[in-house]
Amino acid sequence: MTTRTNSAKWTGTRWRIDVQKDGQRKSFYSSKTGRTGQREANAKADKWLETGVAPTSMRVGAVWELYLKDVRATTGTSNYDRTYKNGKNYILPVVGHLKMCKLTEGKLQDVLNLSYKNGNLNPDGERRSTEPLSKKTMQGIRSTETGFMKWARKQGYTTLHEKMLDLEVPKGARTKEKHILQPESLRVLFSTETCLFRGKLIFDDNIYCYRFIVASGLRPGEAVGLRLGDFTGRRVDISRSINRYNETTKGKNENAVRYIEMNDKAYEAYMGQLYLLQAWRVPRTPDTPLFPLVNQQSLYNHWRHYQETNGIPHISLYELRHTFVSIAQDLPDGKLKALVGHSKNMDTRGTYAHRIEGQAHETATAMTAAFDKVLNA
Fold this sequence. Notes:
Layout: E1 9-10, E2 15-21, E3 24-30, H1 34-50, H2 60-74, H3 77-95, H4 105-118, H5 135-154, H6 183-189, E4 194-197, E5 200-203, H7 207-216, H8 220-224, E6 231-232, E7 235-238, E8 241-242, E9 248-249, E10 258-261, H9 264-279, H10 296-310, H11 317-327, H12 333-340, H13 347-352, H14 359-375
Helix pairs in contact: 2-3, 3-4, 3-5, 4-5, 7-9, 7-11
């Protein structure tokens, strides 16, 4: 416990006292006049100073295990898995042995610096990279650190406030290069419906899913999460995503819930899939999945096989979405964000602005023209 050695002073309008504990400074006030106000300000400071930090002798690694239990109990598998790996491979090898009372902003910055320079810091780690970590990976590690510190502060294991941390991603960290389908491969995708199976060419049951993703800009999990009830004419309401653990979520960020109007290529893929559902005699109810034969992992496997069969350079399903964004690059920024559900720079305008009736149709028409330009070049 820290003992106060000073007393509140009158500033002309109120009593003020500045105190410090475990490297954190705070000020307390009282607007009451006379010694009553001074005693009140002092009492506020004493209460804060006397608030113990539950056993600060605990090691960071031990507190981290408690944090992981809370993450597992309160969030999805995807977030838990990401938190667990960031801790095991980057955070704990640097600070896990420290006492919580010795954990400083500088030590947390060391995690980022060493991770960027050396990659996986876990001596028992199976995946070791010789290349510097990407900017996105570094930002994920930093986010895990601040999440841990926020939880630890609320639980009384530290007085460091996560909002006061100035953790910087090393300036050398670069955005990982994104790959897209080039025009020749895009033309193959929209003209070839077959893949090899035991030496014979057969119809690829997932062809309309591949085409729909690249023509709509949806994330793979959003496409897998689509239900027939989400469609009204050419309008698609996007309100759920199914991750690789088969967990249903609301999507990646606050702007993931949105609606779009299908351009011609997306609509053709949609109608083709409806024909397949009819041929397969799948009951068509509002809750029927548009793509009922897939989960994310099997879809990834089928897509990889389709690429190998048809000579398409390897890109991930998510990079089909990057292809869409590349084709849509001439769209105004606001319309593009409304289509793909990005969260960056949306702020007040993105939060409160409503699209004028007809804008979705204009965007769909523009995207039809953009796809035709690429496919017919």
